[in-house]
Structure formats: C-alpha cells, structure tokens
Write a structure and sequence with these properties.
By secondary structure, this protein is an alpha+beta fold. It is built from eight helices and 16 strands. Bound molecules: zinc ion (ZN).
Length: about 325
C-alpha cells in the first residue's frame, strides 16, 4: 500500500482534487499511482478522473564478462549470434532464458510500443450514480432554453495518463526489461518485461466447451493492469477453476496437480482458459477487451477523492458503478 497525500479542492471542500502516491516499499505497490479529479464549471459536462502512472524502464543488458563464453555456447547450438553480448536472465517462472544486448533503435521502438499499449486503458470507463444518488446534483442555467434552469446529476469520465519516467526516483514503479534471443518463451510479470511483449501477438485458448477462442494479446497493457492493482480475470470475476487453483496453492503434492492449476492466481485457469470466451478475451485474461470490472481502479480512487462523512461515503459506495458505455450527465428536470 502506498502513502496517499491528498489536496483539498479549492472552493469545494467535499472533494480532494489531487492525490499523490508514494511507495512505502519495493515489494508492495498497491494503489501506487497519482490521480486528479476535475469538476467542470457547468453541470452538463462529465467530471474527469485521471489516473497518472509513471513507470521507469530499466534496460537490462547481459553480463559483459560472460558474454564471449556464452556467445560460443550459442554458436555451438547452431544459432546466429548477434553483435554485442549474449547471456541469461531468469523469467517469471525462474527459468534462465537467453537474452542479448539492446540496440538503441530497438530500445526506442520498445518504449514507443509501451506508450501505445498503455494508451489502451485511456477513456474506456465511466462512473455512474445509481440508487437515486443525489448528493452531487446541480441546478444550472439551462444550456438549451435561455432564462430556464435545469438540474443535472454528474457522471465521471475515466482517463489514463501514462508516462515513461526519466528517473526511477520520479517513478511509481520500476520495471526491468530484457531483450530476448533464441527460440524461447519468456514469461513476464509486472516488474520484468521482455522485448517480445511489445508485439501484440495472437493467442488461442479453449473455453469450457472445448471451443477454440482466438484473441489478440497486448502483454504490456496486461502488465500495466497489474500495476493499477488488477488481478487476473479469474480472481477478478471469482471464476470457479481459478478459485480451485488459489485454494490448491498450498497443497503439498504440487506434482499431482494438473498443470493448468499450478501457480495459484497465476495458474493458467486464472487467465480464463476453460471458462467462457468473454473471460479469456479480457485484458486481464489473455485478450484485449475491457469490461466494467477493469474500471475498478478508477471507482476505488473516486471514493478516495470524496471528502465526505462516513455515512455519506457508505451511501456513495453502494451507489456508484462502472460502465464501459459513454454516459453524459443525466438531466433530471
Ligand atoms: Zn498477469
């Protein structure tokens, strides 16, 4: 959990306008991002809640000393050895995989792809009040009929402003990035990416009926979802098979488990395989689709921007929901 520093909104003390997050330690970056709530002066425009996330990408090159030896081994395997050093680096499964030096052009192109994939999270969700939640209703001069008044109930547009930090001291989190080499699959996690993640590749998984579901899988956008605090879709939607995998994580006879149940909430079934097509193709599964569950970081952060009494906050918590449909403020009268 990060430490949150809140700034009151000028002239409207029911709200905090800015929240800045400071990581408390290296291993827990829960809710570690900044945010800003903007309330336009006119009631017929949606409010804007922007999450700001800054990540510092640390380029990992192979060890210079071991380079020549490892290059000789690679050559003996019949591989084409690139210019520069080659080496090994452990992936998320702790398997040592071949890596090589980055060229400047490759690194620049990688960072461009990071920005493009991060942008997939922008402008995907709206927060809407339900249960006749009227605390923020506003009466304004009717924008359509001069001399008349009109009452509006606000909605919140969710924006994502992603930045590549130039220094780790200015970042919410640091991610190491390796340049993979050779015919290996390198499994990434949210603190370790590989050059292969920049390519939005195809993925095929079977649903519970055994039908093949074809998806496009932007791995970096998925990892950014983790940085926003999202778990895998199986945990997010409490899918039965993922629940079993999580229960079995402490099972002493791991070898006896079918492979798709190994790894707790990182088990294959938690990405959506053997569930419904709409689970597999989610961004926190193995696809590129966004659903209302993925808007939770904005919903949670919205409540932190409300400087209300506990009773009012409880009422707000039971009323506001995420939608993926563009929803302008509601005109009531
Ligand atoms: Zn993941």
């Amino acid at each position: 959990m990060a430490t949150l520093e809140k700034k009151a909104m000028m002239g409207r003390d029911m709200f905090f306008s800015k929240i800045r997050a400071f990581p408390e330690n290296a291993w827990d970056r829960t809710e570690c991002f900044d945010s800003e709530l903007y309330i336009p002066p006119y009631g017929d425009e949606s409010w804007k809640l922007t999450i700001n996330l800054r990540i510092f990408y640390e380029r990992v090159d192979p060890d210079k000393m071991l380079g020549p030896t490892l290059a000789a081994i690679a050559r003996s395997k019949g591989w084409v050895v690139p210019a520069g050093n080659v080496g090994f680096y452990p992936d998320a499964d702790d398997d040592a995989k071949w890596i090589r030096d980055w060229t400047q052009a490759e690194w620049d192109s990688f960072l461009r792809n990071v920005k493009n994939q991060a942008a997939l999270w922008n402008h995907k969700f709206w927060l809407v009040p339900t249960n006749n939640y009227d605390t923020f209703d506003k009466v304004i001069a009717d924008p359509k009929v001069s001399g008349q008044r009109a009452k509006y109930r606000p909605t919140v547009e969710c924006l994502f402003n992603f930045e590549i930090a130039l220094h780790y001291g200015y970042a919410h989190t640091t991610v190491k990035v390796v340049n993979v080499y050779g015919p290996n699959f390198f499994r990434s996690h949210n603190r370790l990416y590989s050059s292969g993640d920049a390519v939005i590749g195809p993925n095929e998984s079977q649903d519970w009926r055994g039908n093949v579901v074809k998806t496009k899988y932007p791995v970096i956008a998925h990892e950014i979802g983790h940085s926003l605090g999202q778990p895998h879709i199986g945990k997010l939607r409490s899918l039965v098979l993922c629940g079993l995998a999580i229960d079995w994580e402490r099972f002493p006879y791991q070898d006896a488990l079918p492979w798709m149940f190994k790894g707790g909430s990182n088990a294959d079934v938690c990405y959506g395989p053997h569930s419904a097509a709409g689970d597999i193709d989610n961004i926190m599964g193995a696809g590129d689709k966004f659903s209302k569950e993925n808007g939770k970081p904005w919903l949670d952060r919205f409540f932190r921007h409300l400087n209300l009494s506990n009773t009012e906050l409880f009422r707000a918590g039971g009323s506001w929901q995420v939608t993926t449909t563009k929803t302008p403020p509601m005109r009531l009268a």
